[in-house]
Amino acid sequence: MSKRTATLTAYSLVLLILFFATNCYAVVWSSNELIEKSKELNGRKLNYRGELVTTSLNRGEYSWINLNDGFNAIGVWCKSSSLRDVKFAGDYKNKGDMIEVNGVFNRACSAHNGELDIHADTIKIVRYGHPVNRTIDTKRIESAIILFVVVFFAVIVFRKRL
Fold it and tell me: Which among 6, 105, 113, 146 is placed 20 to 30 Å from 30, CA to CA?
């Protein structure tokens, strides 16, 4: 094979790869899709991502966690050891860790009293949570005081009229 033919073949191969190359990402299902398509997805291995809300419920070797994707929370049954890197669970004071799970989706899990859940095989922390600083809105406090005073005087005025 001549040098020119080899170069032409290499360029053709690179162009062919670039032309047909696509990004291959695992599909991450939303909670709405899981609920709406629960019959079709039952027993299927899939990915789900959400913020860890509330603390994990340790049941020995396994634990329950709830992941909320902004629409609904889905219960996830996973190995307790896979949660050792979890830092924050979402509540009023904290933004929870964003967790992606890969596991088997159950429309009505026979092991867990017919609950919709995911039995996780792998858990990956996509983004760590953090504390949330909430400021007090002074305008709301002032409005509440003014409203209280107005209602207080209205009650006194109408009480005397009756």
Answer: 113
Specify the pTM. 0.72
Query: Which sequence spans correspond to the domains of the chain?
Result: 28-131
Q: What is the mean pLDDT of residues 36-48?
A: 95
Dist. CA 80–CA 67, nearest whole Å = 15
pLDDT, tens digit, for every residue of 87-113?
Answer: 999 999 999 999 999 999 999 999 999
Whether residue 48 contacts residue 74, with contact meaning beta carbons closer than 8 Å, is answered with: yes
Given the structure tokens 């005025």, which residue do they identify? 157
- What is the distance between the terminal CA atoms of the chain, rounded to a whole angstrom? 109
152-154-159 Cα angle (round to 5): 100
